[in-house]
Amino acid sequence: MARRPDISPGGPLGRLAVGVLLRWVRWLEPDTRGLFASALARVAFTLGIRRAVALDNLRRALPERTDDARLAIARSAYESLGRAAVEAVTSDLVPDALLRRLVEVADWKGLDQLLDARAPVLIASAHLGSWELFAEVMARRGHALSAVVRPLAGAFNEWVVRNRKAAGVELILQRGALRRMLAALARGRAVVQLIDQVLPAKDGVFVPFFGRPACTSPAIAMAARVSRAPVYVVAAVREGEGLRMLVEGPVPMVHSADRDADLVANTAALTAIVEATIRRYPEQWLWLHRRWKVQPPA
């Protein structure tokens, strides 16, 4: 019996198809790319791809909202994710002048001075708004940026990785990242990590997030304890057609003799800032992620 062709996203034909699609997306005019992202989001929402997860997350996290309000937030969150996915593989196409005009930073709170001086600094962020354009903005400003990331598989993610590296972002794999984070800080690079994804219980610490314990990476807190580098929380949220960079910090870090308690307290402090920002812009967060999948033992 002849073997069926492998058309999975990681198979040869799947990779070819994804490559052709992404080249077509990059060829489109910016406005048309936006329409494509919106259409992609509507299809995913209509087909119910993780829609039940998103609505359950919203019901638990925002019980004060009505069902209709939560449904509208979920629909907008898919739209935001669609735009972020397209930006992940096209951010390099945005002209410098347009990117400068689109991005607004109300108050850097001293972060820009640290970045310009190539001083060691740690940045926590989240899958909120346009996190891929955040990295592009930093790289275009000449800031040396290292990002702690999970291993990314699949043809689409290969394009994402390629785009990040082309922008000058150094990638640090999450497993065993502390040593490489410290080395990057020593070389005058800012180290950023998205801290709103679930981890296996053995790799994270449990901190409150929308009223429920969420297993969260303590890597930023660990690096801060060893290096004493200042820590900021930065998010790139959409406002109209522009992008607003929200900067909080430097966030006070607790450094006592109880290392484990400090890691939990400091990770909780960063997560609380992330949660507050998501509450301001709930329609731009990744509600379809199974953030609370891992729970602490009874």
Order of helices and strands: HHHHHEHEHEHEHEEEHEEH
Structural class: alpha/beta
List low-pLDDT spans. 1-9
Please count the beta strands (DSSP E, at least 2 residues each): 9
Shape: globular
Tell me the β content: 15-25%
Question: What is the distance, rounded to the nearest whole angstrom, between the alpha carbons of the first and last residues?
Answer: 51 Å
**How many strands, what sense, and barrel or not for the largest sheet?**
7 strands, mixed
Structural overview:
This protein has 298 residues and is of the alpha/beta class. 48% of the residues lie in helices and 16% in strands. Strand 6 and strand 7 form a beta hairpin. Helix 10 crosses helix 11. It is globular and about 55 Å long.
Task: Describe the structure concisely.
With 298 residues, the protein is α/β, with parallel strands linked by helices. It has helices at residues 12-27, 30-46, 51-61, 67-90, 96-102, 111-116, 131-140, 155-166, 178-186, 219-227, 259-280; strands at 103-105, 121-125, 145-149, 170-173, 190-194, 205-209, 212-216, 231-239, 242-248. The protein has 11 helices and 9 strands.
Q: Key features?
A:
single chain, 298 residues, alpha/beta, two-stranded antiparallel sheet, 9 strands
Which helices and strands appear, and what pairs or packs with what?
Layout: H1 12-27, H2 30-46, H3 51-61, H4 67-90, H5 96-102, E1 103-105, H6 111-116, E2 121-125, H7 131-140, E3 145-149, H8 155-166, E4 170-173, H9 178-186, E5 190-194, E6 205-209, E7 212-216, H10 219-227, E8 231-239, E9 242-248, H11 259-280
Parallel strand pairs: 1-9, 2-5, 2-8, 3-4, 3-5
Antiparallel strand pairs: 6-7, 8-9
Helix pairs in contact: 2-4, 3-4, 9-10, 10-11
